[in-house]
Specification:
alpha+beta; 10-stranded mixed beta sheet; 21 helices; 10 strands
Amino acid sequence: MAAAKRKSIAKLCLALGLFVLAGFFRQADRVGAPLPSAAFFLLTNLIYISLAMGWGFSISRRILHRCDRRWLLLGCAMAVLWLFLRTVKYRFFNDDTVTRYLWYLYYVPQILAPLFSLFAALQLGRREGDTFSPRWYLLFVPAICLIGGVLGNVIGFVGLPLFLFTVFDDMYSLPQMLLSYDIVSSIVSVALFAVGVVGATIIACRHEMAETPASLMRPKAPRAGSRILLERIGFIWRRMGFLNKVAARNLFRYKKRAFMTIFGIAGCTALVICGMGIRDTSVALSPKQYGHITRYDLLAVANPDDFSRTCAALDERSAAKDSNVTVTSTLPIMTDNVTFTFGGKSETVQLIVVPDDRTNDLDDYVRLEDESKEPLSLRDGDVYLSKSSQLVLGIQPGDTAYVQDSSLNVAKVKVSDISLNYLGNTLYMTQGTYERAFGRSARLNGVFVLLKGSSADQIAFSKKLKSDGWLTISSTAEHWQNYEANFAIINSVVVLVTFMAACLSFVVVFTLSNTNISERERELATIKVLGFRRGEVHHYVNKETLILTAIGAALGVPLGGLLAESFTYILQMPSLYFDVEVEPLSYVLAVVLSFGFTFIVNLATNRTLNKIDMVGALKSAE
């Protein structure tokens, strides 16, 4: 007895000595040089972590009460996690973004450690088989809501904005990003999350909470079967095998679980289609714009006073012996950046004025077509506005708007029709229409050019023209090349959406599959006793999940198509008409991925099927 007491006193003195040593190291950390300071900091936290782990080992040996030991060990684990995060945050990372995320992880042990300590205190004085009221477990709901709310706010206010800014920063010239925090949105989101979790918990438990203890201790009777609609279709039902009939009845017997699986898979398929649709649309925009709408190879703009001289220099440059590019035809125009105003909204557009005697040649350089993709002819009095500007401003054909040019002259025009233009904002009119609207003559200052030569040669040719007095040179081949290079990063968005779809599928299918197995444990044990092998048991259960996946994928395909189409009106970005286009292969890939996610979940749940104890599941509870 004396030896045990001396041993306890020695352990206590050792712990106190380590605390004093840690305090000494902590003071030395504050005044020491950088290298010794880092060593003192690590030694201090190593002592703290070792003491916390030693406390945990002591609990596991000394505390015999199983429930009390469990809660105390969980609290100890939270203390070790907090000390570890503190050590990593202050010494291993200097990046503000990383340390900010580590700081958010602090909330996990800080919220759970007091909760575990409370449960340990509630367990004191109780016998091994006694437990405190299950209502105390409801404290997990606010804890989970707080942790989920913190992590969700980090992702919503920091993670996703940084990801999207990185994507669009490579495509556009954006100002410096400033992160902001909206306390109202944060509180509302956490509150809605809490209401959803508590509501789902109450709905799921209200029936069990009303039962008596005796009824809860008895095995739950399987749900009663009934005739299904398929049985009334005789020529199909008679040709189905026995196991297929069982699978069909089971699908309709657990209706809630079936509908939840179907809706979850439908949402997964729709999300994948949306991601694929964004990619397909981005890939198709450049050939639509630069191969179909924009037919000229070069747009050169000069000072109106030097226009004749620069056009002559263009011909000379093309006729040079060292030139690999030949000018096949040109169309002189007047162009200007103007402000188009309608309904209190303004948008910067590029004005294109075509000479009256050359309007019939415009189709060789620019294809004008309406929203039904029928060709438009530019006639005197017509004013055509691009589709991207129409979506932003909300203007319709026949409406009147105001146009202010770069010289601050304002004109009133009536929009005749909307022309498709996928990249850029453009306003087309004839020379006579311009002169009547602005009350002054149109001075030619630009030229559409058709070239003969490779894309690389055309880009090199356009760069040489900059020394000939042109103000701006716009090469279609260079724009096409830059677009494809910039929009390659859009694949990151597809990966993000696919990952979200995979998470949705895994959570829904995995949870419902495990619930299905636990509720049908006696049934599955019975068929094992009857001689079903492992593969046959897997097929018996997984066939139902695959059928529900097929139904969900079939519903998700049209849902995903509609959701993708809505992006045309949701993504109303300046100078961009996001005409959604989903390739047939994308629909196939979405369905294949949905089945792939389900197969992965089935592989995980097959292990649960293999572990079913036939004797334990079939023995009488009495």
